[in-house]
Amino acid sequence: MTGSFVLATFAQSAALPRVGGQTTVATMVAYFAVLAVISVWAVRRTRTPTDFFVAGRSVGTIVLGVAAMATTLSGFAMIGGPGLFYSMGATALFLVLPASLTNTLGAWAIARPLHDLARTRGVITIPGALGARYDSRAAQGWSAVAILVAVVGYIATNFLALGYVLDAVFGTGLSAGIWIGALVLVAYTAAGGMLAGVYADLFQGAVKAAASIAACWFAMKVGGGLGEISRTIMAYDADFLSPWGKGGAMTALSFFFVFSVGSLAQPHIAHKYLMARDVDRFRWYPMVMTVSMTLALLLYLTVGVAVKAMVVRGVIPPLVRNDDAMPAFLVAAVPAALAGLIFAGAASAIMSTVNAFLSVGAAAIMHDLPMAFGREPSNELARGRAATVALAVVAVLVAHAPGAQVAFLGVFGYGLFASTLVPALAVGLNWPAATARGAVASIITGLVVTLVGETLSFAGVYRLPAGVPWSGVALVAALGVFSVVSLTGARRPA
């Protein structure tokens, strides 16, 4: 779940508590060593732009499903997620409840159309798919702009989160942790592109699942089982595990709406459909994705409630910050070796997401924007690598900005993708009456409403009623504009 508004809490936090011992450090070093091996393997097989941007269209369904899970679940699921559950209770479930539904919808609604465009039109990016669908350079260009606006803040927020994780384990200091994490990411992303990324994601997805299962087991052990944990919490705070949780019905339903519908147009996920070797085997994709996400999200639920129960019982003191839920749990309940595995899972969650966004952002810069201006891209492999490095450097510099500013840049990433791309992509690929003007109008509407709304909220000028996100308002507005403009404009053959 790429919920950058949760990850953005890192941008306003002090350092995470130190958890690094010799065993924890050794586990993390081994994790980075495996990534290096994958990078060397991939760079030897990356020879063309198709290899770099879409992994040579050679990825099988199981690898694709696990890699998509790894990309979907950013650092928020491993660190921000338990903290969110600790603070909001059952409300936090509504971010992850749509998972099984959205995996099926994604495979059904956009996987085959995107795969067909890739095979018949040579499409290698999501903006390129929109340009081909609508025969519109404007649609390709505006979607690339929307992606870049969201990507920079999103990557910066994740770099900041990775800096906190590396500092907690290695004691690097925050700034050095950001740069070290960025260098590792750029090394395998710029060298091997999506070919390195997808197999790194496969490895990182396995690490996430293993870390999540281990954390779940220890959470149940320290809490006496889910039933005992629930009784402890309910005696102290009945709203915590009520149907809507502490956030209330409006917040819970808003989470569900944005994260269910919005998932259909997250470019780092949709981009993976362009890599598929055999779209006919996509009938297995929802099952692979849902099972792997369920395993990886065990940590999200169980650590949050276990820490809440431990605080209620007086085993650990109340948390100063919600983001301390995972480190506090590791210190109090988990052996050092498994603490290293779980922190490796947190690092992998962040890195797999950033890798995908770096590749998508580099493609927007070096492929989609030139094509939108009528220029045929040249030397894309070398320029794609250069754009990856440049984008990473910009994001690292942004990550060093004051915390509130980084949070502001990262907070609307998921919603901005949803509001700018859901109508044109998820609806437009399945609606013959959709037009290029409708697509462009919806992208601009989503971009403007999200940016203006989030800016007004950040500045304290105007805030929506509690529980109503600007991302949801922008998505509804973009869908309305897309439908009206398409239905009232001139028709062209699909």
Structural account:
This protein has 494 residues and is an all-alpha fold. The chain has a single domain (4-401), classed as Sodium/glucose cotransporter. Helices cover 75% and strands 0% of the residues. The chain is built from 21 helices and no strands. It has helices at residues 4-7, 22-43, 49-54, 61-72, 75-88, 93-96, 99-121, 126-134, 137-170, 174-223, 226-236, 248-261, 267-273, 285-313, 325-333, 336-372, 380-399, 403-411, 413-427, 436-458, 470-488. Helix 2 packs across helix 10 and helix 5 packs across helix 16 (336-372). It is globular and about 65 Å long.
Helicity level, as a percent range? over 70%
- Using the coordinates shown, work out and report the CATH topology: Sodium/glucose cotransporter
What is the annotated CATH architecture?
Up-down Bundle
Main beta sheet: strand number and arrangement? none
Spans of at least 5 consecutive residues whose pLDDT stays below 50 are: 1-12
Mean pLDDT: 81
Give the strand tally: 0
CATH homology superfamily: Sodium/glucose cotransporter
The structural domain count equals 1
- Principal-axis shape equals globular
The level 1 CATH classification is: Mainly Alpha
Q: What proportion strand?
A: under 5%
The class by helix and strand makeup works out as mainly alpha
Number of helices: 21
- Rg (C-alpha, Å): 21 Å
Order of helices and strands: HHHHHHHHHHHHHHHHHHHHH
List the helices and strands and how they pair.
Layout: H1 4-7, H2 22-43, H3 49-54, H4 61-72, H5 75-88, H6 93-96, H7 99-121, H8 126-134, H9 137-170, H10 174-223, H11 226-236, H12 248-261, H13 267-273, H14 285-313, H15 325-333, H16 336-372, H17 380-399, H18 403-411, H19 413-427, H20 436-458, H21 470-488
Helix pairs in contact: 2-10, 2-16, 4-10, 4-13, 4-14, 4-16, 5-14, 5-16, 7-8, 7-14, 8-9, 8-16, 9-10, 9-16, 9-17, 9-18, 9-19, 9-20, 10-14, 10-16, 10-17, 11-14, 13-16, 14-15, 16-17, 19-20, 19-21, 20-21
